[in-house]
Design goal:
Pfam families: Sel1. This protein has 214 residues and is mainly α. Helices cover 72% and strands 0% of the residues. The protein starts with 6 loop residues before the first helix and ends in a 9-residue tail after the last helix.
């Protein structure tokens, strides 16, 4: 018989970002999800079947891990993008930020990339900084959205306020490179100095943090 895992025990084994940690904490079937993932390591078919049963009980985390498994071909199973999208959509519909973010990243690389933007916008409004950063990058590079440096700066600033360190770096770069005057360019230099210490700290001690996710 598999032992029952408390949320605290589960999280002690996981090194993941702040949001995924929160989703594990909030998941009512966390112990069963953990058992299913552990089982999948040795028996993919049985583990995924258990995850499917849990997802059918509206476990957002189970749906997320199913989508992740089919998207990346984990546990030795073949990739299946249709199934990946199906489970990630279910996870997002059940309220998983992780599910919606991975869905957006999948759509961005698919044949329907502009549909990713609506999911990034939803997550940005929920103050999920990696998604806000993704919007800023799209405005900066002009891939999925029309290039607009003012909007890029707006979203980098929004993500910076949400704690995202790469956004702080990009904001500093834009201020130093495209600043209208000395004051703006000086502000960019100040931001570069201010972000250096937390950036180094998180790169060294918390590389899994959402503050570094892109």
């Amino acid at each position: 018989m598999q032992r029952k895992n408390s949320n605290e025990e589960i999280r002690s084994f996981l090194r993941c970002g702040e949001n995924l940690t929160r989703e594990w904490k909030d998941e009512r079937l966390a112990g069963q999800v953990w058992d299913a993932l552990s089982l999948a390591d040795s028996d993919a078919e049985a583990g995924l079947e258990k995850l499917t049963d849990l997802a059918d009980q509206n476990s957002a985390l189970s749906a997320y891990y199913l989508g992740d498994a089919f998207l990346f071909g984990r546990y030795g199973i073949p990739k299946n993008y249709d199934k990946a999208e199906q489970w990630l959509r279910k996870s997002a519909s059940l309220g998983s930020v992780e599910g919606r973010f991975l869905l957006a990243q999948f759509l961005q690389g698919s044949d329907k990339p502009k549909r990713a933007i609506e999911h990034y916008e939803i997550l940005a409004n929920k103050k999920f900084s990696p998604a806000t950063y993704s919007l800023a990058i799209q405005y900066l590079k002009g891939n999925l959205l029309k290039k607009d440096l003012n909007k890029a700066k707006h979203y980098f600033e929004m993500a910076r306020q949400q704690g995202h360190l790469h956004s702080w770096h990009w904001l500093s770069f834009l201020q130093r490179t495209y600043g209208e005057n000395v004051i703006c360019r000086t502000k960019g230099l100040i931001n570069l100095v201010l972000m250096s210490v937390p950036f180094i700290y998180y790169r060294v001690f918390r590389p899994e943090s959402d503050r570094l996710r892109t």
